[in-house]
Amino acid sequence: MKNSFLILILLGLVACNSRSAMQAMEATPSPVEAQKIKEGDPLPKNLFIELAKRINPSVVNISTTQVIRGRGMGPGMPMDPYDLFEQFMFPPGARPQRKASSLGTGFIIDDSGLILTNNHVVANASEIDVQLTEKSKETYRAKIVGRDQRTDIALIKINAKQKLVAAPLGDSDKVEVGEWVAAFGNPYGHGHTMTKGIVSAKEREIDEVGLASFIQTDASINPGNSGGPLVNTNGEVIGINTAIDARAQGIGFAIPVNVAKRLIPSLKSNGKITYGYLGVGVNPIDERMQKEFGLKDDRGAFVVNVSPESPADRAGIQPYDIITEFNGKAIESPRQLTQNVGETQVGQKVTIKLLRDGKPQSVSVKIAERPDENQMAEAPTRSFPKGVQAPYGIGLEVVDLTTAIARQLDIPNPPKRGVVVTEVNPDGLAIQAGVRPGDIIIDINKKSATNAQTAVKHFRKGVNSLRILRGGATILIFMEAQ
What pTM, to 2 d.p., does this model score? Predict the structure, then answer.
């Protein structure tokens, strides 16, 4: 799931300057208890009919409105050519406003009006309206109770004038590959729609779409289904429809409902989720890293960066350490470490086991609260002074990292050491390895890049490892010089 060409669509459906056009056949108005299916028993012929009767009254249409300046085509859509002219026609802050609407789905989880949906459905909305049934002309203005970007879960609330029907929440840990499921939602504004399929896989990791491991299903889901329930044959919600692989047919992903069940109390009481914070940037271990650093296997989380004054920094964790165990749990991958740290209570002391230069070590760490994340764009190419050229046909030039250059790169807290890549030769080794102008090289072959003149002397013939800061993230790059 880490291929750069993977296309994942978050399932919100954009519709500019309009209210949702959801006029279709009305769902059955009253729920009927779904039949309990015993293991080994054949499915009854009317199973999915009963599921529809039970779940449809809990499914709602969510229509959001966002105020946007300019004549763009809406969130996530290409820029309207008129935007280019308006940039010159209107002074800053005076461009014309418009409203863009988007459609999504949610489902009622208790009769007080609490509704579960995806964070990306409501995140940037200035207005949120909820429609309970397709033909209803009445909508209810919703407010956000709490939301969490990392898991893409949100809780909203309406004050309805009628008794609401809550969907029962199941146990997603008991989901089995191959079992029948049904997906509910409002795809493309067609109104309440039900599709069926099976659970295709469990614990799918998708770095582009949040923190949770997903349930994969071939039940047909489409834009507009975001936030809708994925239901088992007992009529219990086991997942929240979230994303699709746009390259394929029948590959959809749902957040396991147990993730939401753990978050709902904090969302209701605090409006947000507090995550534990360690302060390390970690990479998975690939074959090249195993070979260069003499590692036996690919298990663990390879530390590429330690944030200053973070819990990890105070505990003595260093770049190039490999974290193998966290609070008694073996760490197989960076994602597993991230999940374990995030679920740890703030202030709790934990023991971390790691490998440093092949030798096992153990440190005690007091977990802090994760700070708010500032999304930083990749550093664009700037105008830099003439740099020092790297040897061996590597094809890059570097200059000292100064306060002025850090300001050009929009880096509020630059590292204490490092050199800035000012030029990358299109025919050199560096560009093939993925080095870009504006990258900050922190060290080369584990040797600190304190200034440009000495940094280039750390390069060697053969394999070189570079630890690079780019856009707020630290990455490890290998290149082989002849």
Answer: 0.64
